[in-house]
């Protein structure tokens, strides 16, 4: 822009002249890049942003020329670094956070859920099969319960405990364990850990995710069979539905996401494994976020409502209403208007 | 005497080293949409680990402050304080990484301290999806096995082995690819680079003219074309580094050593190019500067005509007729 070539400069060698003509522009670009990095592109004035873009393109040209004509190492290194810095600030992400969350909820999450219906179905099948197996095994021999159930999860419940004790756990009127503390405790309970493992382990060729979900189903089936055995099947159903509909679906969805990653590793098709994993990750990560949202909702239900709502049918109503709410979101959200 | 087998092994080792260096060089090149490849060195595991530790410290301090606040307000009971602390740490750190990388264009505070940065692998701009993905995978890759390691007990050897395998995998994946990508980076299509620092040093060829003109009594050095045919770009740039070091402040000890080095180099160059006049020690640096100017002008001229000379062996590379 402001090249000053005086007669005495013409005595310089070509690359030194090249530098002298453009140095002022480079300095200005340096200033602009620093400003953009410090305050963000959004807060720069119009002239600054316009100059940043055009000076950046000039600098890339300068770099390309300098690589051909100059042997000055200092100049080459400077231009390289300057162009790289300018490139990084010109191509910075320019998205507003509010729009991001809104778009995820209204569009991309339900669309991703619909696209991966097959994997989610696999997840549900996995857990369903596990539950069926656990149920049948318990009916065959009650001591299977001890094989499946981790003792800290059973909380003293088992084939040996009395029906009255089982009923007292289901209809427990103890308010001491509700509120924020209980919410936090439930969020980091067994099921959340299972969900994270199921998703993360999916990358290792599906099998670990499949096995873990199946095992979780086994626990559920054996536990349910124990209560059916004592005539408490419907009561346990209510106790579980209030948060379980949400929580167990979250595990199945996480399993679906994990399987999607595993399938990309197992059957990459025409892509490389890395590329296939990257493509599968697009939907899988949305599934994981949906599962996380559902787990937080389940912890809220469990921490605040499970012990305060004592009526069995109200429990069913709340649990399944929330469940259908999720379903409606996944089925109806993000469809293009006709 | 060494056996031929040892020589072969050594040659193979060198070839492997060359290949690795080549891969490393290729990895540090990014092609922006403008089509001029840029050289951005990939950040090593050590630097990234340090940035990660800084970030963990920052988020932990924030979580601890909140826990203290909560217990001061008596919002928690002692039984649940651990669970709440875990929850707060989780609630703070997940958005922290995503939001800070979005706001600062691929840098968390820890990355800012260490001057490293996330870039898109394909040279485009960083997408939100990529940043969310790589930071969510961080949960599964780093924090989950980390917490697992902290809560291990001796009764469950299986869990310990799983945790060990997981941590080993988390470290092995970045070591196995030249971009040092962890799993989350692979999924998101990103990698981490060192932020380059643009520092413009003054042009040696630009300043040399006025300096010789300042001393009217002394005659400038003149070189003939055949005297400039001996060296290539590598030697020129080495000389440049030496000349730039002359401007720095030196202690008397270093100064004396530097003078001896310069005298040796001047002698070497004189013999190589056949420069007949003797150079007084007082004008040794001046001689090197004028030689640098003449040599650079000559080499750049040759380069413009398509004769690129990488180093002093350029003449040997041309196949003799």
UniProtKB/TrEMBL annotation, chain A:
Parts of the chain that traverse the membrane: 117-139, 195-228, 248-267, 287-305, 317-334
Reading the lineage from the top rank, the first entry is Bacteria
Repeat in keyword set: no
Arranged from A to Z, the UniProt key words for this protein are: Membrane, Transmembrane, Transmembrane helix
Q: Which InterPro entries match?
A: SpoIIM-like
Tell me the protein's name: Stage II sporulation protein M
Q: Which organism is it from?
A: Candidatus Rhodobacter oscarellae
Automatic annotation (TrEMBL), chain B:
What positions does the domain RDD occupy? 42-189
Does the record carry Transmembrane as a key word? yes
Main localization of the protein described in the UniProt heading: membrane
- Determine the domain of life of the protein's source: Bacteria
Q: Which UniProt keywords apply?
A: Membrane, Transmembrane, Transmembrane helix
User: Could you list the residue ranges that cross the membrane?
Assistant: 49-73, 80-99, 158-176
The protein's name: RDD domain-containing protein
Q: What is the lineage of its organism?
A: Bacteria, Pseudomonadati, Pseudomonadota, Alphaproteobacteria, Rhodobacterales
């Amino acid at each position: 822009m402001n090249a000053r070539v005086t007669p005495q400069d013409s005595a310089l060698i070509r690359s030194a002249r090249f530098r002298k003509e453009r140095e002022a522009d480079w300095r200005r670009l340096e200033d602009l890049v620093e400003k953009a990095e410090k305050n963000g592109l959004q807060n720069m004035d119009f002239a600054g942003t316009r100059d940043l873009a055009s000076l950046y393109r000039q600098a890339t040209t300068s770099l390309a020329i300098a690589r051909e004509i100059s042997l000055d190492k200092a100049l080459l290194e400077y231009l390289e670094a300057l162009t790289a810095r300018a490139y990084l600030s010109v191509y910075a992400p320019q998205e507003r956070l509010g729009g991001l969350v809104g778009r995820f909820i209204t569009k991309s999450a339900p669309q991703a859920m619909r696209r991966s219906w097959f994997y989610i179905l696999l997840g549900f099948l996995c857990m369903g099969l596990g539950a069926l197996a656990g149920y049948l095994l318990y009916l065959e021999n009650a001591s299977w319960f001890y094989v499946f159930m981790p003792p800290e999860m059973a909380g003293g419940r088992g084939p040996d405990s009395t029906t009255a004790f089982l009923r007292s756990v289901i209809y427990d009127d103890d308010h001491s364990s509700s509120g924020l503390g209980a919410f936090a405790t439930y969020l980091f309970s067994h099921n959340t850990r299972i969900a994270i493992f199921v998703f993360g382990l999916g990358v290792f060729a599906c099998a670990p995710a499949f096995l873990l979900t199946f095992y979780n189903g086994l626990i559920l089936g054996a536990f349910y069979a124990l209560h059916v055995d004592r005539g408490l099947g419907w009561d346990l159903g209510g106790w579980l539905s209030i948060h379980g509909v949400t929580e167990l679906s979250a595990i199945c969805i996480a399993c679906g996401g994990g399987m999607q990653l595993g399938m990309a590793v197992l059957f990459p098709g025409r892509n490389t494994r890395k590329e296939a994993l990257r493509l599968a990750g697009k939907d899988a990560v949305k599934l994981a976020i949906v599962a996380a949202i559902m787990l937080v909702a389940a912890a809220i239900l469990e921490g605040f409502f499970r012990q305060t709502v004592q009526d069995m049918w109200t429990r069913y109503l709340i649990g399944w209403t929330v469940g259908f709410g999720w379903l409606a979101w996944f089925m109806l959200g993000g469809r293009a208007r006709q | 005497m060494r056996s031929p087998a040892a020589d072969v092994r050594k040659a193979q080792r060198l070839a492997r080293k060359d290949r690795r260096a080549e891969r490393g060089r290729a990895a540090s090149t990014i092609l922006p949409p403008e089509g001029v490849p840029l050289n951005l060195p990939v950040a090593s595991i050590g630097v990234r680990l340090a940035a990660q530790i800084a970030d963990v410290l920052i988020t932990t301090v924030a979580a601890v402050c909140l826990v203290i606040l909560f217990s001061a307000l008596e919002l928690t009971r002692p039984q649940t304080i651990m669970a709440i602390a875990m929850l707060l740490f989780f609630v703070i750190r997940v958005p922290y990484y995503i939001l800070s990388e979005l706001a600062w264009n691929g840098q968390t505070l820890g990355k800012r301290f260490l001057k490293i940065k996330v870039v898109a692998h394909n040279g485009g701009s960083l997408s939100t999806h990529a940043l969310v993905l790589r930071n969510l995978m961080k949960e599964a890759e780093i924090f989950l096995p980390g917490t697992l390691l902290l809560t291990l007990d001796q009764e469950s050897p299986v869990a310990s082995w799983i945790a060990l395998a997981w941590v080993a995998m988390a470290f092995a994946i970045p070591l196995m690819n030249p971009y040092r990508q962890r799993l989350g980076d692979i999924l998101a299509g990103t990698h981490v680079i060192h932020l380059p620092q643009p520092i413009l040093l003054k042009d040696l060829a630009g300043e040399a003219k006025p300096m010789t003109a300042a001393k009217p009594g002394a005659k400038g050095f003149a070189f003939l074309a055949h005297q400039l045919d001996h060296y290539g770009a590598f030697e020129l740039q080495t000389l440049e580094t030496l000349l730039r070091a002359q401007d720095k402040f030196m202690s008397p000890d270093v100064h004396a050593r530097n003078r001896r080095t310069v005298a040796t180099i001047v002698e070497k160059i004189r013999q190589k190019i056949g420069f007949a006049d003797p150079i007084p020690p007082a004008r040794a640096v001046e001689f090197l500067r004028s030689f640098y100017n003449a040599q650079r002008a000559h080499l750049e001229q040759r380069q413009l005509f398509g004769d690129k000379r990488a180093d002093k062996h350029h003449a040997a590379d041309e196949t003799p007729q």
